From TrEMBL:
One of its GO terms (cellular component) is membrane. GO terms for molecular function: metal ion binding; UDP-2,3-diacylglucosamine hydrolase activity. Residues 20-188 form the Calcineurin-like phosphoesterase domain. Pfam families: Metallophos. This is Ser/Thr phosphatase family protein. The lineage of its organism: Bacteria, Bacillati, Bacillota, Clostridia, Eubacteriales. PANTHER family: PHOSPHODIESTERASE YAEI, TRANSMEMBRANE PROTEIN WITH METALLOPHOSPHOESTERASE DOMAIN-RELATED. It comes from [Eubacterium] siraeum DSM 15702. GO terms for biological process: lipid A biosynthetic process. SUPFAM superfamilies: Metallo-dependent phosphatases (SSF56300).
């Protein structure tokens, strides 16, 4: 299936100069051109300031490591600051710790119940990541809620971005006071009918899901959901209909 790129523009009073994010979600070890040439060219052509990997780089049906995804990661991390949180497929495989370690070894900042502050074009930006709003991790012998760990004051002067795979948990994410939330997982609702149905089914949301693709505004928080890059690789896989694999760019402008 042909790759589609989509750019969303978000207006913010917290930036003094533009910021561009490349959002790579739900790749599922799919391949786009020789050595991921299509994705590499699309991202380089857009000249993003950072790259965000929003989970499901790997696929739970595969026993081996996601080498096709790693080809892209190793290329991009040499050119852009890169950030990553796992998705449900890494978690379901049972080897998410190994994948997170490999991503860290590549030079990617792995976020799961934590965040980091960076300067992007003179803009102080906080990037946080969680796996699940309802997941608790044991840290220093104590149970810590991942979302609680990255929640900040509402009047934060810096731009706050949350990478969180499951769009259906948006009501929980809103408690964390983020300016932008980046999600995937829904695969665009699998089957779409332009102008009529924005998706037939999504995991975690069921039939005719609410959050499948695009920008959903919740007050001052922009929730951006990618249709994801997964493309069917076997005859038994559910096909995508009127729902091309999507690479998302987010432009934050004054």
């Amino acid at each position: 299936m042909r790759l589609q790129t989509t750019t969303y523009e978000i207006k913010s009073g917290k930036v003094s100069s533009p910021v561009r994010i490349a959002f790579v979600s739900d790749l599922h070890n799919s391949l786009f051109g020789k050595s991921q040439s299509e994705l590499k060219n699309a991202i380089d052509g857009a000249k993003p300031d950072i790259v965000v990997f929003g989970g499901d780089l790997a696929d739970k049906t595969q026993d081996d490591l996601p080498e096709n995804s790693y080809i892209l990661v190793k290329y991009l991390v040499k050119r852009y600051p890169c950030f990553y949180t796992i998705g449900n497929h890494e978690n379901a495989r049972g080897d998410s710790a190994r994948i997170k370690q490999q991503m860290s070894d590549f030079g990617v900042t792995v976020l799961e119940g934590n965040g980091t502050v960076i300067n992007i074009n003179g803009n102080e930006t906080e990037i946080c990541g969680i796996y699940d709003a309802h997941t608790y991790d044991e840290v220093n012998g104590e149970l810590v809620n991942q979302l609680d760990a990255v929640t900040s004051e509402k009047d934060s002067k810096r731009t706050r971005i949350l990478i969180a795979h499951f769009p259906e948990q948006i009501d929980e994410y809103l408690k964390g006071n983020f300016d932008i939330v980046l999600s995937g997982h829904a695969h665009g609702g699998q089957w779409r009918i332009p102008g009529l149905i924005d998706g037939v089914f999504a995991p975690g949301q069921g039939v005719f899901p609410k959050y499948t693709a695009g920008v959903y505004m919740h007050g001052d928080t922009a929730h951006i959901v990618s249709r994801g890059l997964w493309k069917p690789s076997t005859l038994i896989a559910v096909p995508r209909i009127f729902n091309r694999p999507e690479l998302v760019f987010v432009d934050i402008k004054k």
